[in-house]
Amino acid sequence: MAEKEGEVVCVTGASGFIGSWIVHLLLRRGYAVRATVKNLGDERETKHLEAIEGADSGLRLFQIDLLDYDSIAAAIRGATGVFHVASPCIIDQVDDPQRELLDPAIKGTLNVLTAAKNLDVRRVVVTSSISAMIASATSLADVGEDCWIDEDYCRQNGLWYPLSKALAEKAAWKFAEENGLDIVVVNPGMVVGPVLPPALNSSMQLMVHVLQGCDFSERFFMALVHVKDVALAHVLLYENTSAAGRHLCVESLSRYDEFAEQMERLYPEYKLPRFSTDKQRGSAKALAALKKLIDLGLDYTPMEQIVKDAIESLRSKGYLS
């Protein structure tokens, strides 16, 4: 029997890698899902969502613009919960960081939260990122719930995506405090695994680059997490009313070499660049942050299975031979 038969929730950014898996899980649990996309006329955004089991009766699609409050309110109206996943994810060079990344992330988040407040939504689960906590591998072992990136460092070094995630999350916490809105936040690491949309997300693109032998500096790290675990983390945070604060969501905190060794053992045909570096594992602070989701019932997929699921999905879709 479905656990949440008919309860209405809204997922922004539903067509993306994480969003589509959240929709998949919510439909399996019996929720009625209002899923937002940028363009209802684009099958690349809609077809894979409509193909999910249960979509014919439990899914309704809405077209929104993150900078258009009315379009967001139309999607949220009648929902008891919101999963705010939508945010531009551009890792490469951007021409206009304010227009392309910062405004949609920050103003879009505030529009979603304002609509949620005005329409009496019970709880909003906000998708942030580990990149809102840290900007380099040198600080990886010390990452914890109270960590934030250095905004000046990001601006000086053109790290616009981490900056957009941090500023959007800070804006969300400020809004929630000032307006009495119940929010919780997920901070995933590098999200990989089976791909539902027709295009790859930035993390899976990065994995392709790594497997094709791109040379990364020794500061590069792989804080991997399975996309299904990230989706479940969102749902657990919505359903557990005692959950509060930020939630680091990664299977492991380690340097690149550990990932390279795993890949070499599982898929020796891929020649990953190698370098000598000390492995950096999570400190007690980081492990405490990870434990919050484990205590809610999240059983992380181990790295070996994460790698296998990601590689097999990339192969099946023709991104790797």
How would you characterize the overall build of this protein?
Helices cover 44% and strands 13% of the residues. The chain has 321 residues and is an alpha/beta fold. It has one domain: NAD(P)-binding Rossmann-like Domain (Rossmann fold), CATH 3.40.50.720. Helix 8 links the parallel strand 7 (190-192) and strand 8. The model has no long low-confidence stretch (mean pLDDT 88).
Radius of gyration: 19 Å
What would CATH call the class?
Alpha Beta
First and last CA, distance: 41 Å
Sheet-strand content, in percent, reads 5-15%
CATH architecture annotation:
3-Layer(aba) Sandwich
CATH homologous superfamily caption: NAD(P)-binding Rossmann-like Domain
* Number of distinct helices: 12
The main sheet comes to: 7 strands, parallel
- Low-pLDDT stretches are none
Average of per-residue pLDDT values: 88
Shape: globular
Q: Order of strands across the widest beta sheet?
A: 3-2-1-4-5-6-9
Question: What fold name stands as the CATH topology?
Answer: Rossmann fold
Q: Helix- and strand-based class? A: alpha/beta
Q: In the residues, how many domains can be counted?
A: 1
Give me the strand/helix succession.
EHEHHEHEHEHHEEHEHEHHH
In short:
By secondary structure, the chain is of the alpha/beta class.
Provide the descriptors you would attach to this structure in a database record:
321 residues; alpha/beta; Rossmann fold; seven-stranded parallel sheet; two-stranded parallel ribbon; 9 strands
